[in-house]
Every structure is written in C-alpha cells, then in structure tokens.
C-alpha cells in the first residue's frame, strides 16, 4: 500500500491552481490556490464537498445564495448543488470530496 503520493499542481482556469493532496476511492483532499479576482465557475457534481478556507477571502455562490467567507470558515456542499466562488483576497481553499473525484486524477 502506498501511503504518500505526489500529485502535480495544475491550472484549471485563470488564476487558479489545483493540487490533489491525498486520495482514496472513498475520500479526496484537494488544495485550490486563487489569485484575486479568479473564479471557480458555477458547477455541480455528485460528490459531497466540504470546503475550508486556509487563507484569503472568497464570495461563494451556493444554490442561489451568496455569502463571504474568510480564514477558518468551513461549510458543506451537498451532492448535486450548484456552487462556485470568486476570490476577493488571494488565498487557499482546502476541499474534501466523498467519494473521490476521479476527474481530478
């Protein structure tokens, strides 16, 4: 069994860097770094997602609602809910997904 894996950082969009930190079929941890003004496009997926703000400030759009979050804030996005964000102050989000997002591998 491999305990530590190394995953490359990729840019899924302008001003955004994504890096898988750990994964198993049941769970995945992913780091997203955002520059000011960068956006996470509105989308949905079948995975349950938990988001934690490690640094920076973000405006999140979740199922038609909008709210601002900052360092230390966390929340859960249910399966199938439309969501996205805009970076207000450069920072990092730590997202966990259950089950793993195979499209990130």
From TrEMBL:
InterPro entries linked: Bacilysin_H2HPP_isomerase (IPR052535), Cupin_2 (IPR013096), KdgF (IPR025499), RmlC-like_jellyroll (IPR014710), RmlC_Cupin_sf (IPR011051)
Domain Cupin type-2: 32-89
CDD domains: cupin_KdgF
Name by which UniProt lists this protein: Cupin domain-containing protein
Species this chain originates from: Roseinatronobacter alkalisoli
One Pfam family linked to the record: Cupin_2
Organism taxonomic ancestry: Bacteria, Pseudomonadati, Pseudomonadota, Alphaproteobacteria, Rhodobacterales
């Amino acid at each position: 069994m491999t305990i530590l894996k190394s995953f490359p950082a990729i840019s899924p969009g302008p001003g955004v860097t994504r890096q898988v930190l750990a994964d198993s079929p049941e769970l995945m941890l992913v780091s997203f770094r955002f520059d000011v003004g960068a956006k996470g496009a509105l989308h949905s997926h079948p995975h349950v997602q938990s988001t934690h703000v490690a640094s920076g400030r973000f405006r999140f759009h979740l199922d038609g609602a909008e709210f601002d979050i900052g360092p230390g804030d966390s929340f859960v996005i249910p399966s199938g809910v439309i969501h996205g964000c805009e970076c207000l102050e450069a920072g990092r989000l730590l997202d966990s997904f259950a089950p793993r997002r195979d499209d990130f591998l």
